[in-house]
Amino acid sequence: MSETEEKKRKSWYLWVLGIFVPPIAAIWMWAGKRGTKAARWLVTAWAIAWIIIGPATNFGGNSGDNGSATSQTAGKKTQTASKDTSNTKTTNSKTEKPEAKPATSKPAPEWKNETVSVENVQLAIGEAEKMTKTASTSEITSVQVLDNAGTKTQGDKIVWVKVKPDAVWNETDYAQILAQTMTAWSQKLFENPKVTMVRLWGMADFTDQYGKQSTQPAVKIEWSRATAKKIAWDNFRDMVDMDFKKAYQIADYYYFHPGMWKNLKDSDKKELPVEGGTNLY
Q1: Which residues lie closer than 8 Å to 224 by C-beta, 6 or more apart?
Q2: Taking the alpha carbons of 228, 234, 239, 241 in that order, is the dihedral positive or negative?
Q3: Which CATH class for the 111-276 domain?
Q4: Residue 124's closest CA among 179, 186, 178?
Q5: In this structure, what are the phi and psi dihedrals at residue 136, rounded to the nearest 5 degrees?
């Protein structure tokens, strides 16, 4: 092979390396001092540019690929999310209950129109207007509703209520509490036309001469509807508030336990025998 052909062959290698792998071409030219100095610097500059631009171009290409993959993945996720949302909506639509219509509140029936039952009597007593020393509803120990066989009207009722007051100073204070409780509760209970008689029992603990303790009625007081009809309630409440004996003096029947009665004030005992009432005899 002639020298000219050899140079052409090597020149061809140089051009191929310079285009596709310029760093190797630059090294090869500088190491063998091939080509002119200007050509060597030109290839070196191209090699440097190739090193800088090449990875950036590759990164851009990869970025485009990744971006495409990301877009596809995002698309899949969006589709999945759409399906999930669709499924959630379907599930919700299955479990969703129709809104309940607000219940129309009916006014509570008035006591005067109610059936006379133990429960309704207790509710009515709870609505009664209290006086200075009215017993608490929590002190009620029992309520009974009985048929009144003594009247001609079928369905007439007798109401018996037993209470046991907690905080009592003395026997006189106890008698005052029962008088005001009878007045306040009877005013309410007699609003119902079926209530024909109200009896209030005041319970207390007593100890006999042998030391035995028992719970017995300390006071009984009874009013009939006939008596209740005569009462001007607002004025009478004030009268009982000032003088508790008024409640006993108009009663159809009242009774004091002897142990209770003997400890009342002497002035009160003069006006209130141990047992009395307009229908006593």
Answers
A1: 196, 197, 252, 279
A2: positive
A3: alpha beta
A4: 186
A5: -80, 150
Per-residue DSSP letter, 98: P
Instruction: For residue 252, give both structure tokens.
Output: 């159809």
Q: How far apart are CA 3 and CA 10, in angstroms?
A: 11
Single-letter code of the amino acid located at 195: V
Token readout for 27 is 């090294």
Q: CA torsion sign, 22 to 26 to 38 to 32?
A: negative
* pLDDT tens digits, one per residue of 127-167: 999 999 999 999 999 999 999 877 777 789 999 999 999 98
Domain range summary for the chain, segments of one domain joined by +: 3-88, 111-276
Contact 197, 148 (CB under 8 A): yes
- C-alpha span between 96 and 7 (Å, rounded): 88
| pTM as predicted | 0.61
**What are the tens digits of pLDDT across the range 4-37?**
455 555 555 566 665 656 676 667 676 666 667 7
CB 76 within 8 A of CB 52: no
| Cα distances (Å, whole numbers) of residue 212 to 9, 36, 206, 219, 263 | 139, 138, 8, 20, 20
DSSP structural state of residue 210:
T
